[in-house]
Amino acid sequence: MEYLPWLLAGTAFGFMFGIIPVAGAGIGLISMFGYIEIFRPDPYTIVVFSTALVCAAAIGDSFASVVMNIPGAGGSAATMVDGFPMTQNGEASRALGAALATSTANGLIWGGLVFAFLPYYASAIMAFGIPEMLAFLLLAFATVCFVSSEYWFRGIIALCIGITVGLIGEHPITGEARFTLGWDYLGAGVQMAPLLAGVLAVPELVIAYRNRHKTKIPQIRSEWAGIWQGFKDSWIHKWDGLRGGFVGAVVGIIPGIGGNIADWLAYAQTVALNKNEKIPFGSGNVKGVIGTEGANNAQKATSYVPTILFGIPGANFEIIIMSLFMIVGFEMGTPEVLEDMTFFKYLFSSYMWALLLSFVLGLFFYRYAVKITNIDFKYYFWPIIALLVWSSVQYTGYWEDYAFFILACTLGMFLRVNKLSRAAFVIGFALSHRIEATGVSYRLLYDTFDIFTRPISGSLMALITVAIIYGIFFNKTRIKYV
């Protein structure tokens, strides 16, 4: 009960960012850097607040995708394919009801399986040695470059840029400055908040602002009958939702892929297994919404597995969570966290309760949420930009914070325009020190080919080979870049 206010606040905060077009959990989490000091006295508060934020944002994402044809975040983009045509056909309530029921149900199923048993998974991971950890890091790099995007070569370039940026600062052994170009501001390394805001958030906000008049939004009415029909659709087509949840869960466990691929794969398998539909997919078929939304919260839940157990983010938003947790003293993948049962208890309880609270919010505040999504995006744009700027300039408070934020935004737009995977960039940045330290330890303690001869690391290297072959020869995903 002592953490109930944090649970309620995180749920409300996340739901608000979820229904705002293009915002989602990522921008909500980035904004937390601005008031991180609130959580320092009791670090478990940030576990509760951030987990509730992620759950609620995942539910809220569906509103913008269905009503406005603009994804609340990258992970809800596939929902638009059939969700918005349903809105144009006067079935917005039905689409939202189906999305709400399916996403919540799969979140409860996979959240329970993940968080209830996560401490037991943690005890098994303690047996991982340096070769296994190195192989898992390489798997993260391979999946984000070769599976997450069709442009695998550009993904490799973005990954290398991210690793280089991550290594800016003091050399861990010599203490000498490296890659700082003589700028003392970078002596302690690159600050996470402005970099993530500039690379991940600002480009999407700018693109959405430019395109805000391209979609004509129909008038939406609040219809309880439509919502109830959506609930019934979710039950009637439950196997489509459960299959989507399974796809999302599997993708979430694989480090470096994220919600984009999970949702599109879930949509693709729904289309493939439902032939000769009376309502073609892409024209407002409710099964398209159900299959996609099945992956929504399932992927969010399972992406915590590699993040917590290995300290390797399962999705972009997990990179932000890792950074926030580290600031208050929780370093993911370390024995201190893996043996902290209180940490796991609050992670599990906050996730499950936030899902139920978000369901209630989505159900009873439906008409108000729809009104919010119908507000012109220009009224969201500037307050969100101001919030991101404020959160990004807390390091020194001087001009250098603002200068670095502008540089990060420039880099983000460069990556976006040139279709260089920003997911690969941030994965490389986040894991730069881990890959450096693990690589050095491996070279000192093991022979070159030992990684192939051990059972677990050898299996992971085989998966890496499959990912590379798939990315080069077979990957024709609809996600051109992320």
Gist of the model:
The chain is an all-alpha fold. It has helices spanning 4-19, 24-31, 44-68, 80-88, 92-125, 130-146, 152-166, 192-210, 224-236, 238-253, 259-272, 286-302, 304-310, 316-328, 335-338, 341-364, 366-373, 378-392, 399-417, 422-445, 450-453, 455-474; strands at 169-170, 177-178.
Molecular structure report:
Helix content is 71%, strand content 1%. The protein is an all-alpha fold and 482 residues long. It has one domain (4-474). Strands 1-2 form a two-stranded antiparallel sheet. Helix 7 crosses helix 20. The relative contact order is 0.19.
Tally the helices.
22
Estimated helix fraction: over 70%
The biggest beta sheet reads: 2 strands, antiparallel
Number of strands: 2
Counting structural domains, the number is 1
Q: How far is it from the N-terminal to the C-terminal residue, by CA? A: 39 Å
**Structural class assignment:** mainly alpha
Mean pLDDT: 82
The rounded Rg comes to 21 Å
List low-confidence stretches: 478-482
Coarse shape: globular
What sequence of helices (H) and strands (E) makes up the elements? HHHHHHHEEHHHHHHHHHHHHHHH
Question: What fraction of residues sit in β-strands?
Answer: under 5%
Question: Could you give the order of strands across the largest sheet?
Answer: 1-2
Labels describing this entry:
1% strand, single chain, mainly alpha, 482 residues, two-stranded antiparallel sheet
Secondary structure layout:
Layout: H1 4-19, H2 24-31, H3 44-68, H4 80-88, H5 92-125, H6 130-146, H7 152-166, E1 169-170, E2 177-178, H8 192-210, H9 224-236, H10 238-253, H11 259-272, H12 286-302, H13 304-310, H14 316-328, H15 335-338, H16 341-364, H17 366-373, H18 378-392, H19 399-417, H20 422-445, H21 450-453, H22 455-474
Antiparallel strand pairs: 1-2
